């Protein structure tokens, strides 16, 4: 059964790749006659494993996502260092829990598959340094009942996420106060966390450079993931994935994929932007100015079911350190530390 699945999926990948190349070749010029593109299906090399997404008709997959962060703002770093007993650090937390059902509505094992995602529940919480929950409804809490579609190829690469982009922009509109004498004022929100969990769903698999050749234990490949933060900021993390081991389980063979994160120097232009125009952000992170990221470091792990062709779970964790400036000559530059955790768990 595993060999049949592997052969079928490899054939699907080759056919999809060949058709795509043929289309691109045909766009080079109608006057020039192109030779047909073909590729011989070769068996996987010993020790190689296919990491491909497999969808089954009428079978939905329900996942729970949790994105949370602990935030520490040190208003006077020099004082905190010289007088530990007189700390000037304020601590707060933010978290979002969300359940999403993914149902294939059009499956083509040799081409593109359309997935319908239904947001079943979302809960966002935000606590202040006093331990009390911050008032106000987060923009992401309008998500229950919302749907979007994704078009995915056999390697897990999303070929069309326009409907998800539309939903992200709707969330962005909901993040602003309905009426304000101060112009456009954006409330704190966790839209960046929604993006981090949905825009990069199968990144560990779809970022493999040559998926039809398979991956061996110990092999690494690279990608980029977003960096959700409590302030308005577009940052990315460079990711190195490594296939650490193949682990047997009652549900099938699990590929254990480790990941490490560092700060990226650039952000891909195609990533979504939920807000437009000029605005002021309310709260502490709208009061600060001139954010500068000092560093980012972290790691994660994913369990990918090779036999079922699906993610079972993942966890990501990183620490990011920043400095900020206060408006005018109001004192020393505060330092901010963010401990971020993002998890995904198959629950049906």
Describe the fold and architecture.
The chain is α+β, with helices and mostly antiparallel strands and 348 residues long. The chain has one domain (2-346). It is 17% helix and 40% strand. The protein has six helices and 15 strands. The chain has helices at 2-26, 77-82, 162-174, 191-198, 203-206, 284-287; strands spanning 48-49, 61-74, 89-106, 113-127, 147-152, 158-160, 185-186, 215-216, 220-226, 236-247, 254-263, 280-281, 289-305, 310-325, 335-346. The strands form three sheets. The chain has an eleven-stranded antiparallel β-sheet. It has a two-stranded antiparallel ribbon with strand order 1-8.
Q: Summary?
A:
The chain is α+β, with helices and mostly antiparallel strands.
Keywords:
two-stranded antiparallel ribbon; single chain; 348 residues; 6 helices; 15 strands; disordered N terminus
Main β sheet profile: 11 strands, antiparallel
Shape: globular
Number of strands: 15
The fraction of residues assigned to DSSP E strands is 35-45%
How many helical elements?
A: 6
State the helicity in percent bands. 10-25%
Helix/strand structural class: alpha+beta
SSE string, helices as H and strands as E: HEEHEEEEHEHHEEEEEHEEE
Strand order of the largest sheet: 6-5-4-3-2-15-14-13-11-10-9
Total number of distinct structural domains: 1
User: Which residues sit in consecutive blocks of at least 5 with pLDDT less than 50?
Assistant: 1-8, 18-26, 28-40
Question: What is the CA-based Rg, rounded?
Answer: 23 Å
How would you state the average pLDDT, rounded? Answer: 86
Distance between the termini: 23 Å
């Amino acid at each position: 059964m595993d060999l049949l699945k592997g052969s079928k999926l490899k054939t699907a990948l080759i056919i999809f790749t060949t058709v795509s190349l043929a289309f691109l070749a045909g766009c080079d010029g109608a006057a020039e006659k192109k030779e047909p593109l073909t590729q011989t299906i070769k068996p996987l090399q010993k020790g190689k494993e296919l990491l491909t997404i497999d969808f089954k008709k009428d079978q939905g997959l329900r996942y729970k996502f949790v994105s949370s962060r602990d935030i520490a703002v040190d208003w006077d770093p020099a004082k905190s260092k010289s007088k530990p007993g007189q700390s000037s650090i304020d601590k707060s937390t933010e978290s979002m829990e969300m359940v999403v059902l993914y149902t294939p509505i059009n499956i083509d094992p040799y081409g593109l598959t359309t997935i319908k995602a239904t947001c079943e529940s979302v809960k966002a919480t935000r606590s202040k340094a006093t331990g009390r929950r911050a008032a106000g409804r987060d923009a992401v809490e309008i998500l229950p009942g919302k749907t979007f579609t994704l078009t995915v190829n056999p390697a897990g690469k999303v070929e069309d996420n326009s409907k998800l982009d539309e939903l992200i922009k709707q969330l962005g509109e909901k993040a602003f106060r309905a009426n304000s004498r101060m112009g456009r004022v954006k409330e704190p929100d966790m839209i960046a966390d929604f993006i981090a969990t949905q825009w990069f769903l199968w990144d560990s698999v779809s970022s493999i450079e040559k998926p039809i050749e398979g991956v061996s234990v110990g092999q690494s490949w690279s990608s980029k993931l977003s960096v959700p933060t409590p302030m308005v900021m577009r940052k990315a993390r460079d990711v190195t994935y490594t296939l650490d081991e193949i682990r047997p389980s009652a549900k099938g063979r699990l590929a254990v994929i480790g990941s490490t994160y560092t700060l990226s120097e650039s952000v891909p232009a195609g990533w979504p932007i939920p807000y437009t125009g000029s605005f002021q952000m309310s709260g502490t992170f709208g009061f600060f100015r001139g954010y500068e990221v000092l560093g980012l470091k972290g790691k994660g792990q994913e369990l990918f079911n090779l036999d079922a062709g699906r993610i079972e779970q993942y966890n990501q964790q990183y620490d990011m350190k920043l400095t900020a400036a206060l408006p005018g000559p109001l004192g020393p530059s505060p330092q901010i530390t963010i401990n971020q955790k993002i998890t995904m768990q198959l629950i049906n």
